[in-house]
Write the structure tokens for this entry.
Amino acid sequence: MARNESQISRNYSDQIRAKWCARAGINSAIVKLSKLDFQQPTYLGEGGLGFTSKNDELDLGYGSFEVTVQDELGKLNINAASPKALLELFQDQSIVDSIIDWRDEDDKPLPLGAESDYYLSLPNPYQSKNAPFDTVRELLLVKGINERVLNARYGEDGTKIIDMITVYSSISSSPVLNFNSASADVLALSLGMDLPSAQKIVNYRAKNGPFVDLSQVTDAVGVSVPTPMMVSASSNVFKITSTGRLTPGGASATISCIVQFPENSGPQIKYCQE
Ligand SMILES: [Ca+2]
């Protein structure tokens, strides 16, 4: 019995120490991102930025971290996504109607959607939001959406849907898409482009580095980019995911944070999941 208890308490303290390693990774990413010039094009490389405590030549003594950074503005904004984009992504009209009902102001359901009438009839009732999503995981409150739907894979590279979408905007509250960070799938979905054209943008960017502005995309790739939503060459809001791992024992802990870097103040943590 006593042995079990000491084992449990040891596991617990390993978890705490692994979490401290993960936090060190988050801090290291914030320091790196703080050094970016947010007036310049933001390009973290295809697939985002990755580094480890070993790359940083940081000795955590008992553990290490592994970090990935993604540009949130390179994702499909579910507060701005068109019905067509949502249908392409989720392949389910009922989910599309329910997402639109959740974020629109009225309480009148679309043909396959749901508003407060539906949600108030659930065993644990709640109202329809009738306002923009504040987090991506808020989608779990919407009719027809569960973890399986959010973790389904999309497109040729099989990215999880939850990793392709965002609710975050730049400094102004309007949703913005950074064409220097968006994958071909996200460019196609967000802007209503065809996939081969979107792929041209990504290929050019991967080879030549980021675009300075939208006209340069047209000049370089020969593709005129539709702009049903605001687009930008830069970003100041990122998702940092850090996994801390203990060297002996191998206990691990992962932390994900959304961090925004406003122009005239320090970094702001918008969301954190431990
Ligand atoms: Ca509504």
